[in-house]
Amino acid sequence: MSMLTAHRLLGLPPQDQVRVLVTVGTELPFDRLVRTVESWATTSGHTDEVLAQVGESGEIPGAIAWTRFLDGPRFREYFCGADLVIAHAGMGTILSALQFGRPLIVMPRMAKFGEHRNDHQLATARRLAELDRVDVAFDEDELVERLDDHDLAAREPIGPYADEQMISALRGAIRDSHDLV
Amino acid sequence: MTSHRPPRVLAIASGGGHWIQLLRMRPAWEGCEVVYASTRPSDREDVAGAPFRVVPDANRWVKWRALWCAVRVGALVIAQRPDTVVTTGALPGYFAVVTGRLIRARTVWVDSVANVDELSMSGRWAGPHADVWLTQWSHLSTPDGPTYRGTVFG
Predict the structure, then answer these.
(1) B2, B20, B28: residue with CB nearest A91
(2) Which residues of A touch B108 (CB under 8 A)?
(3) Which CATH class is domain B8-148?
(4) How confident is the model at residue A181 (pLDDT cuts 50, 70, 90)?
């Protein structure tokens, strides 16, 4: 089965049409993020170029293509093909954007809106923004501002693996256990 | 005395960010006999060729799910008899550390890089039980653990 047919069967747009991928992860909905991108896309005339992964219980957008879940290969396909990824401040997405060199804007989930149990995404986003690992929009207005900004660029890509210090610490722990056998 | 078979490693994490961080540590167990476990069946494709098990997803907010997760993860650890358990969390990793300790495996907890201001709850529970307890933020390390030994950023 060709990729095109597979996408049609799943009701997904062809990969080369999707310039902007919105992803909220698999655990919880993040309607505030999806709604903001949908409204920006409507105003700016980009609705045909956006695909939103909205989660199991997320609101369904009316103006942009959507899917509840993307499996690994399809996620990577859209992710790597997109000019821009917009996401919650989840580490999986942030690490993938760095590894695959994709421009990324994250908006942290907020506990006060019931988007997560606590505000750890806010803390992560703040710290990683300070370290210049990621572009952060802390609220909807900032997100629209960033979406209108055409100078967004990917960060310096990182390699596929953890740093040498961590690898050697783990390797040491594994070898030690073995020597005790 | 060192035995001749390769070390047996159980690498376990919840699906999503925890799993992606675990995958970035793969060179650490190169040459070992590794079994992976995650909460998401589609994660199997990330480790094609290696044995992969699915464990129930759970968080500490839904008690009966957590209990089921503990049972399944415990059974997995006992069946696999790893020399070392490596986990990036969250709750399934906690249960793997606790059961790993029971079977006298070496246990390694790497707290998620997402935990910037404070350790995760599962990390605070698991850390003191783990032989090696790491944080990815140097400002969170303390003399009693966790310690800082680099990050998954690479």
Answers:
(1) B20
(2) 170, 173-174
(3) alpha beta
(4) very low
Q: How far is residue B99 CA from its own chain's centroid?
A: 12
Phi, psi of B50 (to 5 degrees): -95, 150
For chain A, the domains span 13-179
What is the per-residue pLDDT across A112-135, written as a single tens digit (0 to 9) for each?
A: 999 998 999 999 999 999 999 999
Contact B117 A120 (CB under 8 A): yes
Is the Cα dihedral B35, B41, B43, B47 positive or negative? positive
ipTM of predicted complex: 0.95
Residue A123 CA, chain-centre distance (Å), reads: 17
Q: A128: part of which helix (H) or strand (E)?
A: helix A120-130
Which CATH superfamily is A13-179 part of?
Glycogen Phosphorylase B; (3.40.50.2000)
Beta bridge partners of B9: B34, B84
Token digits of residue B118: 């404070």
The HSE-up count of residue A98 (CA atoms within 13 Å, CB side) is 23
Across B129-152, average pLDDT: 97
Contact B137, B148 (CB under 8 A): yes
User: Cβ contacts (< 8 Å) between A26 and chain B: which residues?
Assistant: 15-16, 40
Continuous H helices in B26-131: 63-80, 91-102, 121-126
Q: Using one digit for the tens of pLDDT, what is the confidence trace for B42-83?
A: 899 999 899 999 999 987 778 899 999 999 999 999 999 999
Confidence class for position B3, pLDDT limits 50, 70, 90: low
